[in-house]
Amino acid sequence: MATIAVLGAGKIGEALLSGLLHAGRKPEELLFTERHPERSAELTGRYGIAGVDVSEAAKRADVLIVAVKPQDIEPVLDELAPLVGPGSLVVSLCAGLPTALYERRLPEGTPVVRVMPNTPMLVNEAMSAVSPGRHATPEHIRVVEELLSSVGKVLEVPESQQDAVTALSGSGPAYFFFLVEAMIDAGILLGLPRAVAEQLIVQSAVGAAKMLAESAEHPVILREAVTSPAGTTINAIRELEKHGVRAALLAAIEAARDRSVELGKAHEED
């Protein structure tokens, strides 16, 4: 079995390690890097996985999963460059960073796969989009898909679509949380206790998501099924349209896409 190292054990990195363990990987097949000793000790105690430095991870691992913040990528690449071996596969979970950046900084021919996951990885319900770099083969993609399927669903897309994916599903959970937050506040405004409003809305969100996933119906059809003539729902929809909620959401997702593009350009060569 391949040895897998997760470089950066934040929430996403920890969620991936946990998912791999639940999928049957043994602790000795996994490694992680973490800058803070207290956090490293906590994770080793929780999962039995060894915390190492970047150089040790590069020497021992067959698959290097880079899960640091985009602004922290430069020192990581500086450390990896002289250490990555010819058989290593590099997987980037960093928003906005193109495979070309890794290919430029790492040894010639290094296979790189770009991934945009999202935070439902924490509950094994991630949506991860994967894109191969110039040197990544179908077998490399298969390996990455197998790893990520332990924490949710996986979809292969062209790398040219990754900034859009980042805006839509990478940031997507935040839009849903924002909407739920607003709906809970509305419940309080209407006189419901916060705990009651939260339970009503969260379960409604869970049920609606399950209907979307399992019914095979278009969202418009599902919405229309709730929208009776001259009823309460159509009055609410009218207000949402009047206040430009649809247009605001489109603009927000475009802004997220633009920021993803900027993150990649920040690491382009002069």
From TrEMBL:
UniProt-listed SUPFAM superfamilies: 6-phosphogluconate dehydrogenase C-terminal domain-like, NAD(P)-binding Rossmann-fold domains
Domain Pyrroline-5-carboxylate reductase dimerisation: from-to ranges: 159-263
A Pfam family matched in the record: P5CR_dimer
One term under GO cellular component: cytoplasm
Keyword Amino-acid biosynthesis: yes
Location (main, coarse): cytoplasm
GO molecular function terms attached to this record: pyrroline-5-carboxylate reductase activity
Keywords, comma-separated and alphabetical: Amino-acid biosynthesis, Cytoplasm, NADP, Oxidoreductase, Proline biosynthesis
Catalysed reaction, written as an equation: L-proline + NADP(+) = (S)-1-pyrroline-5-carboxylate + NADPH + 2 H(+); L-proline + NAD(+) = (S)-1-pyrroline-5-carboxylate + NADH + 2 H(+)
Its job: Catalyzes the reduction of 1-pyrroline-5-carboxylate (PCA) to L-proline.
Family classification: Belongs to the pyrroline-5-carboxylate reductase family.
Name of the molecule in the record: Pyrroline-5-carboxylate reductase
